[in-house]
């Protein structure tokens, strides 16, 4: 639950358990993760290498389907607001029928690539999620990941920041507001 929105590694979990004096094989950790996914506690999101056009075999991210359960277990949803926002976007995209992946490109990462076929046409959305874009320096990496993508599919930066950041490359800044997304073109 504490690793929602972060890259998950079964081997890292095994190493952590070993430090806690619990010897557990990787297969057991994988079985627990698979059972948790089957029980709809988590949704795995695979990483996609955008240059090589292939899925990476490891380094998937795991998102939760119930923030109330996470809050009950950890008691700290507020401290991880950016991860919670990512989780909400992941769930929203999946609920609308998209296949959701995390984009990986050299040193850049795109939080979500959402794809589905609509009327025999591929529909694709690229999304970066950030809590606040407090300055041009914090906004730049969010927009840079999307600017590096050369296709013409829609690109969004979603934040809670009421201060809109301009972008002349067609990237839209959307604001989470009272549980809704307000689309604002910039």
Record keyword descriptors for this entry.
186 residues, alpha/beta, eight-stranded mixed β-sheet, two-stranded antiparallel sheet, 5 helices, disordered C terminus
The protein's oligomeric status is single chain
Strand order of the largest sheet: 3-2-5-6-7-8-9-10
Strand content: 25-35%
Helices and strands: which structural class? alpha/beta
- Poorly predicted runs are 182-186
Main beta sheet strand tally, sense and closure: 8 strands, mixed
Distance between the termini: 36 Å
- The best one-word shape is globular
Number of strands: 10
Gyration radius (Cα, Å) is 17 Å
Helix and strand run: HHEEEEHHEEEHEEE
Helix percentage range? 25-40%
Describe the 3D structure:
This protein is of the alpha/beta class and 186 residues long. It has one domain (10-184). The protein is 31% helix and 30% strand. The strands form two sheets. The chain has an eight-stranded mixed beta sheet, with helices on both faces. A two-stranded antiparallel ribbon has the order 1-4. A hairpin with a 4-residue loop joins strand 2 (47-49) and strand 3 (54-55). The radius of gyration is 17 Å and the shape is globular. The model is unreliable at 182-186 (pLDDT under 50).
């Amino acid at each position: 639950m504490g690793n929602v929105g972060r890259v998950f590694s079964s081997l890292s979990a095994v190493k952590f358990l070993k430090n806690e004096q619990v010897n557990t094989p990787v297969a057991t950790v994988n079985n627990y993760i698979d059972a948790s996914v089957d029980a709809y506690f988590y949704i795995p999101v695979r990483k996609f290498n955008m240059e090589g056009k292939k899925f990476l075999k490891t380094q998937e991210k795991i998102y939760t389907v119930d923030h109330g359960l996470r809050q009950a277990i950890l008691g700290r949803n507020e401290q991880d607001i950016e991860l919670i926002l990512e989780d909400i976007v992941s769930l929203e995209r999946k609920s609308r029928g998209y296949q959701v992946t995390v984009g990986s490109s050299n040193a850049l990462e795109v939080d979500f690539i959402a794809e589905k076929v609509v009327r025999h046409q591929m529909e694709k959305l690229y999304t970066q999620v950030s809590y606040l874009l407090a300055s041009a320096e914090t906004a730049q990496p969010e927009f840079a990941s999307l600017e590096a993508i050369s296709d013409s599919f829609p690109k969004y930066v979603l934040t809670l920041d009421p201060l809109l950041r301009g972008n002349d490359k067609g990237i839209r800044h959307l604001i989470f507001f009272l549980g809704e997304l307000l689309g604002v073109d910039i």
